[in-house]
Amino acid sequence: MRRRGRRPGGQDTRTALIEAARAVFGESGFDGATVRAIATRAGVDAAMVNHWFGSKEGLFAQAILKLPFDPHELLVVLRDGPDDEFGQRIVRTFLTRWDGAGGEVFQALVRSVAGHEQAAAVLRGFFQNFFTKVIGGLGSDRVELRTTLCASQLVGMGLVRYVAKFEPMASSEIEPLVTAIAPTVQRYLTGDID
């Protein structure tokens, strides 16, 4: 016999809230998402958000601000290969990782950037730290400008694929996108930017 009523307040509730938060933040951004909508989607009482995360902000931090990959591990993977193929590895890995996360985390992060400084700081910090290490390791000049150019390419690509869902990019296989976009990223990394 199936039990009725609220879900017990265990780890499965926490996981359900994180999954629901990713979907609701992805659809509505931080400001548009409500604790009630997230709890309803998770099938739990809204009080569970405060119980597990302390607030909507705490849930946002756990569901969205924690990237679905380890940046250090990502650098190790990307450094495995010739420097002149770095752009290919970056674009391929970016798309593979975000596709694997369902695109929802990226979508929620980007939609929340405009109205939530913490989301903007996380996105900015990730790209600045990540590309500063990548470009610094390649010995390229003008690291700050190159970092910003690479970030603009990847954030723009993510915005078009996961948020605005422009076709054919939204449903394209990864390799054609790598072929089209990687040369630009490679130029930003090591080429002439004057």
TrEMBL record:
Keywords: DNA-binding. Residues 34-53 bind DNA. It comes from the Bacteria. GO terms for molecular function: DNA-binding transcription factor activity; transcription cis-regulatory region binding. Residues 11-71 form the HTH tetR-type domain. InterPro entries: Homeodomain-like_sf (IPR009057), HTH-type_TetR-like_transc_reg (IPR050109), HTH_TetR (IPR001647), Tet_transcr_reg_TetR-rel_C_sf (IPR036271), TetR_C_16 (IPR041678). This is TetR family transcriptional regulator. The lineage of its organism: Bacteria, Bacillati, Actinomycetota, Actinomycetes, Pseudonocardiales.
